[in-house]
Automatic annotation (TrEMBL):
This is Dehydrogenase. The lineage of its organism: Bacteria, Bacillati, Actinomycetota, Actinomycetes, Mycobacteriales. It comes from Corynebacterium crudilactis. Residues 5-117 form the Gfo/Idh/MocA-like oxidoreductase N-terminal domain. It comes from the Bacteria. Pfam families: GFO_IDH_MocA, GFO_IDH_MocA_C3.
């Protein structure tokens, strides 16, 4: 029987509390709570209700011998330093998304993890366990749809009222949170988009900062990306659309995939590459096309599938997979090194909107990004600059 991995939860807030409940309910059969850490002393009673040790300093918990692994449910800027300290002390690290706020910081953790190949370093991309997106990745990886031509994701279901931002002084700030919708709400989509379609090479973006909310960071994003083989993409997100849209489209040489509301998938498969169909269509066919008389079923077949999900299952599956990887039974579904892709794209979108220029993601200028980020942190006047 597999060893139960003792997980140390750093930060007993909404996310950390959710993981603690799942583990205490036995929903992850190969993992249990080893200890809990939080800087707020009032969290001690809640932690002790789980029957595990409580620590106010994450370093003390990591070196206590009470845990085999940790998860970092803390503000984004803290993920890399906590991940590095855990790995330094031979503790496996499951880092919440994003793995870092800026690429220089994220890469420090990723590069250090390479020096500890015997330890597992993962990122908490729970949407990678979503069967819908797993199926889409399988389809794209198989090549059955042909090469990618264009992909777009409109994900505006992140409506947040002003009261959400007024919860604390660090929220929706450059120095406290490191950005807005790109680093707080949309990292899962930035990850999934690249996981399924591939990483883009360039990005040009127009962001709105404090557009419909009294905040310093971005609450609306329009980004255009280009891929190595000429394919293109668009990513649109915001936090001020109370109705919201969630629609992913992937157009390929031999068909199209459309996902609505992360639940309904429509796959249209062409009988042949679109360019071949175009060349073989004579003027008589064109006339029928224009008059609505062309029988499109001879060219395309359509499959529709609905998916259901049970709340919490995806998070539990990430923890189960991570524990199985620690036990040498499975590969990580979301290796920590994959986390750089979302961070780099988010940074590139910021930098492009700040400079008005297209940004090269392959040779990303992380020093310029950090310089621009620090200008905004300094302007806030209440947080230390980053290095």
């Amino acid at each position: 029987m597999s060893k139960k991995i003792r997980l140390g939860i750093i930060g007993l807030g909404a996310e950390g509390g959710m993981y603690a409940n799942f583990l205490s309910e036995g929903r992850v059969n190969n993992m249990e709570i080893g200890a809990i850490c939080d800087i707020l002393p009032e969290k001690k009673e809640a932690a002790e209700s789980y029957g595990v040790p409580f620590y106010s300093d994450y370093k003390d918990m990591i070196t206590s011998g009470d845990v085999d692994a940790v998860v970092t449910t803390v503000p984004h800027y803290l993920h890399p330093e906590m991940g590095i300290f855990a790995l330094e002390n031979n503790i496996h690290a499951l880092v919440e998304k994003p793995v870092g706020v800026y690429t220089k910081q994220a890469n420090e953790l990723i590069q250090f993890a390479k020096t500890k190949p015997e330890l597992k370093f993962g990122v908490f991309f729970n949407q990678r366990t979503n069967q819908l997106y797993k199926d889409l990745k399988s389809i794209m990886d198989s090549g059955e749809m042909g090469k990618l031509r264009h992909t777009s994701w409109i994900i505006t279901t992140w409506w947040r009222p002003q009261g959400y931002y007024n919860q604390s002084d660090w929220r929706a700030t450059w120095g406290g949170e490191g950005g807005g919708v790109l680093v707080n709400q949309a990292p899962h989509q930035l990850d999934l988009w690249q996981w399924i379609c591939g990483t883009p090479e360039k990005v040009f973006a127009r962001n709105a900062y404090g557009f419909r909310r009294d905040i310093a960071v971005e609450d609306e994003v329009h980004a255009l990306v280009s891929f190595a083989d000429g394919a293109s993409g668009a990513f649109i997100t915001c936090t001020h659309d109370i109705i919201g849209t969630d629609r992913l489209e992937i157009l390929c040489d031999k068909g199209k995939i459309v996902v609505d509301d992360s639940q309904k998938v429509t796959i249209s498969r062409l009988v042949e590459n679109e360019e071949v169909l175009s060349k073989d269509m004579d003027m008589e066919d064109v006339k029928k096309l224009f008059t609505g008389q062309l029988d499109m079923t001879q060219y395309v077949s359509v499959e529709t599938k609905e998916y259901e999900s049970v709340w919490g299952n995806q998070h539990c599956e990430v923890m189960r997979n991570f524990a199985a990887a620690v036990n040498g039974e499975e590969e990580l579904l979301a290796p920590g090194s994959d986390g750089i892709n979302g961070v780099q794209l988010a940074n590139g979108i910021h930098l492009s909107s700040w400079t008005g220029q297209e940004v090269d993601l392959v040779n990303f200028d992380e020093e310029t990004y950090l310089e621009e980020l620090n200008k905004r942190i300094k302007g806030e006047g209440k947080f230390e600059e980053r290095n």
